[in-house]
Write a structure and sequence with these properties.
Length: 262
């Protein structure tokens, strides 16, 4: 039995959605590991799989996978670090036979992860807080590092976001960061979010533009930023409406790409 609370419980949201989507006709993503984990947990996860969250997680997964694959074509032997990995299985979708992969999360999450993910060559687990300045010591240093921060920053205070990016800057000399960003208006809506409201987690931070990170964290440069709307609007009328109606279209989460030099 796995007991999760607060922010850690939120890792069941993308897990449930990926499992659900994988089993749909004409599924947009495939995550058989998510299906396996949900079946083994034997939990009722219906509260974690609501329409807007479902479309958001699917779109986020597609965008992150595509962006990471693009950078791995340029840097095939990069070190990749998934911060706040939860039960994510992205390595299986992007592995090129050369990259080195690290999954970083709290010790109890990594312990739970070990129950479902067998040991793999070139995949390493780090059981630590992302805000502990010592975790980078466990990471192999190569010319290029690619860091993924998905579904996490919105649960941190602004000072903690700054602290995390400072840890990255101080320990990796040439880094690409793929990060999910939330609009500050959306960050005020934990109690109204269709799935997060069923947990004890609370959104704490958001920014209107990735450019603000350049001011918050010296040495961080925004390369690109795209709303999840660009994917969501392809697949449903509700997704299209959410992506096009003035007043709400800017409130969806975004994938931001940053370059950080030591």
């Amino acid at each position: 039995m796995i007991l999760l609370d607060g922010v850690q419980e939120t890792m069941l949201i993308p897990l449930a959605i990926k499992a659900s989507e994988t089993q749909r006709f004409n599924a947009r993503i495939q995550d058989k590991k998510a299906v396996e984990i949900i079946e083994k947990l034997g939990m009722d996860v219906s509260k974690y799989d609501k329409f807007m969250s479902h479309e958001g997680v699917v779109s986020r997964t597609i965008l992150f996978d595509e962006e990471l694959k693009k950078y791995l074509k340029k840097y095939p032997d990069a070190v990749c670090i998934s911060i706040g990995c939860g039960f994510d299985s992205r390595f299986s979708r992007v592995d090129n036979g050369k990259l080195v992969w690290y999954d970083l999360d709290f010790p109890d999450v990594i312990s739970a992860r070990k129950q479902f993910f067998p040991a793999q060559e070139r995949v390493h687990l780090i059981a630590d807080s992302a805000l502990d300045p010592n975790w980078p010591k466990e990471v192999e240093k190569r010319n290029k590092t690619i860091i993924l921060i998905e579904g996490m920053l919105m649960y941190l205070e602004e000072q903690e976001v700054k602290q995390l990016f400072q840890i990255i800057k101080e320990n990796f000399k040439d880094t690409i960061v793929l990060a999910e960003l939330m609009h500050p208006a959306a960050a005020k809506g934990s109690k109204h979010h269709d799935t997060v409201k069923h947990t004890n987690a609370t959104f704490k931070w958001g920014i209107k533009s990735g450019k603000e990170m350049e001011l918050l964290c010296h040495g961080v440069k925004l390369i690109d930023e795209k709303s999840f709307n660009c994917e969501m609007k392809k697949h449903s009328v509700r997704g299209w409406l959410f992506a096009t109606i003035p007043g709400i279209r800017n409130f969806n989460d975004r994938l931001a790409v940053f370059h950080i030099r030591k």
